[in-house]
Design goal:
The chain is α/β, with parallel strands linked by helices and about 220 residues long. The chain is built from 6 helices and 10 strands. The chain has a single domain, classed as 4-Layer Sandwich (Purple Acid Phosphatase, chain A, domain 2). The mean pLDDT is about 90.
């Protein structure tokens, strides 16, 4: 099965639809969304609801936790500037979608913010890390907020790792703090990709196909 990994959406429904259309999604294709599906500010309550309703209807759709989404269920750990409680219907849809911490497809570890170098385990594959994240071996990383972000952890976890923090040396696809262009991290034996180009005010989205690594973007601004 092909997998199409979609970066942070931040409630931009029409851009999300446009990205899937441009990618040529077929019925049997899997869609993995990196989290921050909603933005969760006071101004985005209704757009967040719309994008969650749309996502709930998609076949073969897997949502990962983003820090914005996680604030809805764990505000004390994951509060961010501008956060506002979502509508009750949005909260229910978030529950229905059953977000996960990570996924592993075609040799790539897929998370919201990437696995930090500090948590690297020699010889581990993407599948090994994904297994650990689902059996509590690394699940504490969901609440690891670094000092850079105002937390106490020495390094950001998979919801809060910043783009300036070092990346574990395995193939990864992630979002969270990329910027206005898709970023590629070239290593001797593999590449990793940050595909978050959206924000509350920027509605351009990016995605990447696995296993082909073809990048699809709603505007041509890739570095």
């Amino acid at each position: 099965m092909r997998s199409f990994v979609v970066g942070d959406v931040h409630g931009h429904l029409y851009s999300f639809i446009a990205l899937l259309k441009k990618a040529g999604i077929k019925q049997d294709d899997e869609i993995i969304q990196l989290g921050d599906l909603g933005h969760f500010s006071l101004d985005t309550q209704h757009s967040d609801l719309a994008v969650f309703r749309f996502a709930r209807r998609l076949p073969n759709f897997l949502m990962l936790w983003g820090n914005h989404d996680r604030a809805v269920v764990d505000e004390q750990q994951h509060w961010f500037r501008g956060y506002h409680h979502p509508l009750v219907a949005t909260r229910q849809l978030l529950t229905d979608l059953k977000p996960q911490l990570s996924a592993a497809r075609h040799g790539y570890l897929i998370t919201h913010a990437g696995l930090h170098k500090d948590f690297e385990k020699p010889g581990y594959t993407a599948e090994d890390y994904n297994r650990l994240l689902h059996v509590n071996g690394l699940s504490h990383l969901i609440n690891a907020v670094s000092r850079r972000r105002g937390g106490l952890a020495p390094a950001g976890g998979i919801l809060w790792r910043d783009i300036r923090e070092p990346l574990a040396d395995i193939p990864q696809i992630f979002g969270h703090t990329c910027g206005e262009a898709v970023m590629q991290f070239v290593r001797p034996n593999h590449n990793s990709f940050c595909i978050d180009i959206a924000s509350a005010t920027n509605d351009h989205l990016a995605g990447i196909w696995l296993p082909s690594l073809e990048i699809v973007i709603t505007k041509e601004n890739v570095s």
